[in-house]
Design goal:
The complex is a heterodimer of chains A (111) and B (115). By secondary structure, chain A is mainly beta. Chain A contains no helices and 11 strands. Chain B is mostly beta strands. The chains are: A mainly beta (111), B mainly beta (115). At the A-B interface, strand 4, strand 5, strand 9 and strand 10 of A face strand 5 and strand 10 of B.
Amino acid sequence: ILNVEQSPQSLHVQEGDSTNFTCSFPSSNFYALHWYRWETAKSPEALFVMTLNGDEKKKGRISATLNTKEGYSYLYIKGSQPEDSATYLCASFGGANNLFFGTGTRLTVIP
Amino acid sequence: DTEVTQTPKHLVMGMTNKKSLKCEQHMGHRAMYWYKQKAKKPPELMFVYSYEKLSINESVPSRFSPECPNSSLLNLHLHALQPEDSALYLCASSRVSPSTYNEQFFGPGTRLTVL
């Protein structure tokens, strides 16, 4: 079992603000780090799969960085919009096809 | 079609009932997964099917019985469940197994309540 932690648990930001949150995972035997976005009453949707230390990925206004040596990843949202409101889950791949998820960061963007 | 569908959306069952959850994908994915999520907890892996064969069973009680009739379908048969089994059951698929480098595509889940 991998202990994956996310902070903060919840976050309220004003529309237009930029924000970021953290995923911490064990740095030993690292394989991959997944980020998912989960809107209420919808399916979790993959944002990024990251494997290399120092990797940085971007999709529109959302980007993520990865530090496998110290065991953390940051997710950034630039110019938050109300449609960005969702729970953001990270998951560390533990080998043997098992993804270990954090409890998520619940983001609310206030118009 | 990049969608994973799950039926039913909601299910209420008694402890003596037998019911099934269904999951379907038409993306040609060869790995399919069942996860269980309790409130305020992360999703936890239950089963993995790879090329229609059960590859992982994460010590799940036998009252949960998975079945993969073909590469597009995944069922979870439920029998003699306990109230503590009430949870959101998520199905997912990925192009291949293991999904180290491959994103998983999730369905919206079945909200199960056991009375």
